[in-house]
Design a protein that fits this description.
Pfam families: Methyltr_RsmB-F, Methyltr_RsmF_N, Methyltranf_PUA, RsmF_methylt_CI. Belongs to the class I-like SAM-binding methyltransferase superfamily. RsmB/NOP family. By secondary structure, the protein is an alpha+beta fold. Helix content is 26%, strand content 24%. Strands 5, 6, 7, 8, 9, 10, 11, 12, 13 and 16 form a ten-stranded mixed β-sheet that branches. The protein has a five-stranded mixed β-sheet with strand order 19-21-22-23-20. The chain contains 13 helices and 23 strands. The protein is globular and about 75 Å long. The structure holds S-adenosylmethionine (SAM). The site of S-adenosylmethionine (SAM) has 17 residues, from helix 6 and helix 9.
Length: 459
């Protein structure tokens, strides 16, 4: 295993003083493991009854649970594929709890991949409002898309922008913004030892400059009275209190607020860098004080500024008659109630449901303009995996439920065709009633439409 960098140990010894021995001993222990029940799919109490794992509540997140890594492998269970939970470091659940998202709001997750916090925000929003998930890295956006689809998030717009470019397009538009910033990752050295190799004093300075530029870009996008959460997974005061002080010096209309649930955390440490004492309202999550990795969380409120400049809805590519017709035919044949009132847009022949009053997206890298409904071919409509995941078995005319132990379930996940005695047509395939994907029944066979890139063998 990679050793902890000498300079890092020296830094932590100087900062933590008498606390240092108990801090450094945490590296001898395994990391704590957590999962978050996805309340877009099921309630916490149903999740506790249904999930076959040894769960213990995480005090700072009421949908979060520790699991026992020696006995449970939730990442391999079919309920994971069905999006019933998201595996997440317990400390990483703190920033969204501090953001306090509400249904119907406009919320920006500026550094979103792989989507742990985006899916947590989506669950708080109950799928209502606009959730903009932005991720600059193309490679990492793939995991973001996959996780949002798996978790059945119906209302996200996925962008791939440099925050400085976004900033000019959404002035005063968001009620809440999360910046879960790229950082030197000191808080992850225990869980992910590879990150140790990339660390140096210089890398922490470069990270601080990048974090400052991301905060600067986010500031104008928040409406007056809006809430911004800044979080990192590093202990480094230069990247935490230091970046915030530099930001507040130039943006006096932002004020630090107390992080909710502070009783579970330690206060931030402005005294380490001679910053404003008000920054102590932020929180530090330490592995020698709680069961999780290192994290930093701060809440800022905006007191002033411009409000909602981009009120004018943007124009998206229109939906031509053929696409509308095949989609409507599909809806009538497959769904019991039409839960998709639009508006819609077409990207190529892919149909999306979008939010009614989005500003123009022209010139932006758009990974998903909204919920991907499927592909509108000339004569028929092929529903998407994202649509299957956002539905329930009660909302469709035909569904088949397999139990986790059934052979047919494994066959479905492997992508095989399955003999079946059911009515012809698109059929929602579920595990215990929770959607996994599509199949199409014809002549006594279920043709498998589980996405090729997700196919696998259950253990
Ligand atoms: C700590 S991770 C985000 C984790 C994510 N919020 C989650 O909970 O799953 C930080 C992200 O910032 C992205 N990033 C890197 N450089 C960036 C930049 N210049 N502007 C915005 N984001 C950047 C990284 O690609 C990375 O995905």
């Amino acid at each position: 295993m990679n050793r902890l960098p000498e300079d890092y140990q020296k830094q932590m010894r100087e900062l933590l003083k008498e606390e240092y021995p108990s801090f450094i001993r945490t590296y001898d222990n395994p990391p704590h493991r957590g999962l978050r029940i996805n309340t877009l799919k099921l309630s916490v109490s149903e999740g506790r009854q249904r999930l076959p794992f040894h769960l213990e509540p995480i005090p700072w997140c009421n949908t979060g649970f520790f699991y026992d890594h020696d006995r449970d492998r939730p990442g391999k269970h079919v309920y994971h594929a069905a999006g019933l939970y998201y595996i997440q470091d317990p400390s990483a659940m703190a920033p969204v709890e501090a953001l306090q998202p509400r249904p119907g709001e406009k919320i920006l997750d500026l550094c979103a991949a792989p989507g742990g916090k985006t899916t947590q925000i989506a669950a708080h929003m109950k799928g209502e409002g606009v959730l903009v998930a932005n991720e600059i890295s193309r490679e990492r956006r793939k995991a973001l898309v996959e996780n949002l689809e798996r978790c059945g998030v119906p209302h996200a717009l996925i962008l791939g922008e440099d925050p400085r470019h976004l900033s000019t397009r959404f002035t005063g538009w968001f009620d809440r913004i999360l910046i879960d910033a790229p950082c030197s990752g000191e808080g992850m050295f225990r869980k992910d030892p590879d990150t140790r190799e990339r660390w140096s004093y210089r890398s922490t300075r470069a990270a601080a400059d990048l974090q400052f530029s991301i905060l600067e870009a986010a500031a104008p996008m928040l409406r007056p009275g809006g809430r911004l959460v800044y979080s990192t997974c590093t202990f480094n005061p230069r990247e935490n209190e230091g970046v915030l002080q530099r930001f507040l010096d130039q943006h006096p209309h932002f004020t630090p607020e107390h992080v909710p649930q502070a009783v579970h955390y330690q206060p931030a440490r402005p005294d380490w860098i001679d910053a404003s004492p008000s920054l102590a309202k932020g929180a530090r999550l330490w592995p020698h004080h709680l069961r999780g990795e290192g994290h930093f969380v701060a809440v800022l409120e905006k007191r002033d500024g411009k409000e909602g400049i981009c009120k004018k809805p943007g124009k998206l590519p229109p939906v031509h008659g053929d696409a509308k017709r095949v989609f409507n035919d599909f809806l009538q044949e497959t769904l019991i109630e039409d839960r998709f009132p639009g508006p819609f847009t077409l990207f190529g022949d892919h149909l999306y449901q979008v939010h009614a009053d989005l500003p123009s997206l022209q010139g932006l890298v758009v990974e998903r303009p909204g919920l991907h409904l499927g592909q509108a071919k000339r004569k028929h409509f092929a529903p998407s995996h994202a649509l299957a995941s956002a539905l329930t078995s009660e909302s469709v005319r035909r569904s088949v439920s397999f139990s986790p132990e059934e052979d047919h379930l494994n066959q479905y996940l492997r992508g095989e065709t399955i003999p079946i005695d059911k009515d012809k047509g698109w059929t929602l395939i579920t595990v215990d009633g929770f959607p996994l994907g599509w199949g199409k029944v014809s002549g006594g066979w279920l043709k498998n439409h589980y996405p090729k890139w997700l196919r696998r063998n259950l253990i």
